[in-house]
Amino acid sequence: MLPSTGHSPGLVLAVMAAGGAGALARTFVNDAIAHRVRADFPFGILTVNVTGSFALGLLTGLTWYHGLSSEAFTIAAVGVCGGFTTWSTAIWETLALLRLRLFTQAALYTLGGLALALGVAAAGIGVAALA
Amino acid sequence: MTIPTPAGPFHPSSRSPATLVAVTVGGALGTLARYALDLALPVAPGHFPTATLMINLSGSLLIGLLLPFALARSAPHPLFRPFLVTGILGGWTTYSALAADTATLLKAGHLGLALIDVGSTVVGGLVLVACGFYASLAHTAVRYRRSDGRGN
Predict the structure, then answer these.
(1) CA B99, CA A20: separation in Å to the nearest integer?
(2) Cβ atoms of residues B152 and B86 within 8 Å
(3) B39-80 per-position pLDDT tens digit
(4) Which of the 8 DSSP states describes residue A41?
(5) Chain B contact for A101 (CB, 8 A cutoff)
(6) pLDDT at residue B5 above 50?
(7) Mean pLDDT of all residues in B17-32
(8) Which of B25, B85, B146 sits opposite A20 (nearest CB)?
(9) Chain-chain contact of A12 with B151 (C-beta, under 8 angstroms)
(10) Which residues 58-97 in chain A show a CB within 8 A of chain B?
(11) 3-state class of A45 per DSSP?
């Protein structure tokens, strides 16, 4: 995924700042959705992960088809998208749903969520190809 | 593990400035570590994303080990969860790279590699988060409520 570029101190700091901002944004989005949608189903993190996957697909397509610089890609993809989306919480939620014996929701969340994320990532690449 | 409790600690306004700083700093550090492993194990587009798999599998084990302590009756430091779990583990692991890597593998015609990547992330991740969870459960009195399932 990662273009092998040099890693200047400035780029490293920018990736870190972008990752911190992504994590902060994840907290706000998740909190806002979890507060409004009072369900066992983890809509908050699903929303974060699906939108982040679309954004990364778009960035990937911009790199392929429009020559987005590797520095800009690294900051936005590794930093923002990587800090925003999360796997650890997603798989924790799967375990939590399984422990609550909500098997259909667990399967829907895990497999459906991945299929959705994969679909929107591909759509992001496609949008960039058309643009 | 009993009763669902609405909203609970997840009200948007309930986050203190210290919590938000902990999430941001933790997220920056987790991202730095992921970036370092990405650079150490570079993956050409259309090849198997080993680094991301290692990152997400280790993150699965670590959240299973750590989150029970955040949910324990004798709660740890209030910044334990925002810093270590939401920040560092959230910044370390990534969902978007998994999705985009898989899309890239499929586009390159590597259906087998895509299935191995997603399958090992999901199955391995679930096994590891469960191992971590039950290992920690043996060492802490978890007060586990439904709403606590929201790992973030």
Answers:
(1) 21
(2) yes
(3) 999 988 778 999 999 999 999 999 999 999 888 877 789 999
(4) S
(5) no
(6) no
(7) 97
(8) B25
(9) no
(10) 60, 74, 77-79, 81-97
(11) helix
SS3 sequence, chain B?
CCCCCCCHHHCHHHCCHHHHHHHHHHHHHHHHHHHHHHHHCCCCCCCCCHHHHHHHHHHHHHHHHHHHHHCECCCCCCCHHHHHHHHHHHHHCCCHHHHHHHHHHHHCCCHHHHHHHHHHHHHHHHHHHHHHHHHHHCCCCECCCHHHHCCC
Query: Which residues in chain B have their CB less than 8 angstroms from residue A57's CB?
Result: 99-100, 103
CA A16 to chain centre: 16
Specify whether the CB–CB gap between B53 and B121 falls below 8 A: yes
With contact defined as beta carbons under 8 Å apart, do B39 and B98 qualify?
A: no
**CA gap B20, A23 in Å, rounded:** 9
pLDDT tens digit sequence for A16-66: 999 999 999 999 999 999 888 877 789 999 999 999 999 999 999 999 999
Q: At what angle do helices B96-107 and B111-119 cross, to 10 degrees?
A: 160
Contact yes or no for A125 and B107 at CB 8 A: yes
Q: Looking at residue B3, what is its pLDDT?
A: 38
What ipTM was predicted for this assembly?
Answer: 0.92
Q: Do B129 and A91 touch (CB under 8 A)?
A: yes
Higher-confidence residue of B93 and B143: namely B93
User: What is the rounded distance in angstroms from the CA atom of residue A26 to the CA atom of residue B3?
Assistant: 26
